[in-house]
Amino acid sequence: MNKTAVIAGAGPAGLTAALELLRRSDYQPLVFDLDSQVGGISKTVNYRGNRMDLGGHRFFSKSDWVMNWWQDILPVSASEEELAGVTLAYQGQQRAFSASASGERHPDRAMLVRPRLSRIYYRRKFFDYPLKLNAATLGNLGWIEAGFLGSSYVRSRILPRSPEKTLEDFFINRFGDRLYRTFFKDYTEKVWGVPCDSISAEWGAQRVKGLSITTALLHALKSAVGRRQDVAQKDVQTSLIERFLYPRLGPGQMWEEVAARVAEGGGEIHLGHRVIGLERDGNRICSVDVLDQRTGEARRVSCDAFISTMPIRDLTEQLQAPDETVRRVARGLPYRDFMTAGLVVRRMTAKGRGSVDEHGMPGDNWIYIQEPDVRIGRLQIFNNWSPHLVAAPGTISLGLEYFCDEGDDLWSMADPAFLAFAARELEQIGLIDRRDVLDGTVVRVPKAYPAYFGDYHEIDKVRAYLDGIENLFAVGRNGMHRYNNQDHSMLAAKAAVDCLVAGSSEKESIWSVNTDDDYHETRGSAASEAGGTPGGAESRRAA
To answer: How far is CA 405 from CA 54, 189, 331, 370, 375, in A?
Structure first.
């Protein structure tokens, strides 16, 4: 290795770039991250043996390259009974796995095949997500309301909104006005803190993609004919997948293993370090100033390339962009912050609201809380992601997710008060009894969600400026100010490494990830074989 690549951020994008550089180039990656652990928002928080997945990460992608990459790091581990008839698609081929080939040497470092269940909680009842026209849904809604929803959908198909500019337009055109107002509007505005008619339709195009009433009905008909056992599920819309891979000890286990391989290969990972300055020589970044948060010592690191997952507003500020328009747009890019109240409880009180176990626990990975009288946005049940996330047998580990703005009333609430508030809300909607709460912790994540309002409509001006810096590659969720998932971030990082290996400064392949349905919903095997960026969908961080 005779070149140096400085990487800002040790999340999925930064660590993928680091490992790919070691595998495919003569660059030595030096990774700097402010956090005390790797993984970014995909890290696993360990609180007294209870492991928390921040936001919920399904390891599922329509990119063969991503699926193969994950399997190389953490092999699939399951019993012969669990794997019977199950295949995983890698590089255009169907492969069957058996226990003997699935990581017996290191059973703790392995992926599980998990069933996927997420539902909507509304009117103190569970609704299938996506909604199904079955007896349970009709019973929850009532025949009259179901008729209104159906006629509203038909009307939206006959007279769609055009042009489709806002997220409200996007939802109404696909689900009808009444269904949108019943199941989408309140929850989405709870997540983003602004009305749906203030959010760009691009968010829906990236997150919901081809899902609609029609695709949901077609999927239901296919499922009725026969249950597919292909985990790749390449012809299935993201929100309809039924199985996914999941690291035994949570998503952070994947990135901890990747970090270990980077270190073994000669790369360096420095945690607790902040990038505080960028030095340019003409049209190139020649060095990066970093600050050790623990010692207060700053140092300058020379580099031949700089891969950034920093928030665009911070990156642009440190570059001291000469164009006032670029600086204004970057400063005006909004974010939504995120808090999780992790509660350990003896039991839940969901009996009578669907299938539950002896402790009243439903089988959901997460539940969308549509109730307007509480501020909780979503509930995760970590037992159903992996039983190994829970410290004590017979207990239930929950993640109560809140969407907020840094410095607002929720964010500023002291931890004990916030835990009590979250427990009261969950009791209020009938899912727990506060007396069953055993323990709890709070995790705050700033800038968790790049938002598609404010000055976002002018982001192309910032992108053009960043792309003009020859050896700068902006990747990842915050690095691109795009609501990417793990596999999108990985594919963008791979595209950046492709450019470095080819000696190219053309960035279009990076920005093409997660923009076009044909791009990320197809297998992309031809691009993969050609060494280009394969098409990839989501690693499925839901929100």
So the answer is: 17, 13, 16, 20, 13
Tens of pLDDT, residues 125-172: 998 877 676 778 878 888 888 888 889 989 998 999 999 999 999 989
pLDDT digits (tens, 9 = 90+) for 473-489: 999 999 999 988 899 99
User: 308 with 5: CB under 8 angstroms?
Assistant: no
Query: Does 177 share its domain with 325?
Result: no
The mean pLDDT value for 305-330 works out to: 94
Identify the CATH number of the domain in which residue 134 sits.
1.10.3110
- Please give the helix or strand (H or E) that residue 402 lies within, else none: strand 396-404
Contact yes or no for 524/64 (Cβ under 8 A): yes
Predicted model pTM: 0.84
Domain limits at 175?
128-218
Return the closest-CA partner of residue 512 out of 494, 539, 486.
494
- For residues 321 and 374, membership in a common domain is answered with no
Examine residue 534 and state whether it is found in any structural domain, yes or no: no
* Tokens (6 digits) for 342: 């992790």
Start-to-end CA span in the chain (Å): 40
Are the beta carbons of 200 and 167 closer than 8 angstroms?
Answer: yes
List the structure tokens of 126.
């569970």
Residues 444 and 340 in one domain: yes
Residue 183: is its pLDDT beyond 90? no
Is the peptide bond between 247 and the residue preceding it cis, with omega within 30 degrees of 0?
Answer: no
Pair 429, 121: CB distance under 8 Å: yes
Do 318 and 278 belong together in one domain?
yes
Taken in order 247, 249, 252, 256, is the CA torsion positive or negative? negative
321 and 470 share a domain? yes
Which DSSP string do the residues of 318-379 spell out, in sequence order? HHT-S-HHHHHHHHT--EEEEEEEEEEES----TTSS-B-TTS-BS-SEEEE--TT----EE
Same domain, 438 and 341: yes
Going through 180-283 in order, the beta strands assigned E by DSSP cover 243-247, 268-271, 273-281
DSSP β-ladder status, 3-8 and 27-33: parallel
Establish whether the linkage from the previous residue to 446 is cis, with ω within 30° of 0: no
Number of domains in the chain: 3
Separation of alpha carbons 120 and 378, rounded Å: 9
Statement to judge: residues 461 and 329 lie in one domain: yes
Whole-angstrom distance, CA of residue 461 vs CA of residue 7: 23
- Give dist(CA 251, CA 243) in Å, integer: 16
Alpha-carbon span 482 to 59, nearest angstrom: 19
pLDDT digits (tens, 9 = 90+) for 421-436: 999 999 999 999 999 9
CA separation for the pair 39, 289 (Å, rounded)? 22
**Amino acid (one-letter) located at 502:** A
445-484 as b/e: b if 16+ CB within 10 A: bebbbbbbbbbbebbeebbebbbebebbbbbbbbbbbbbb
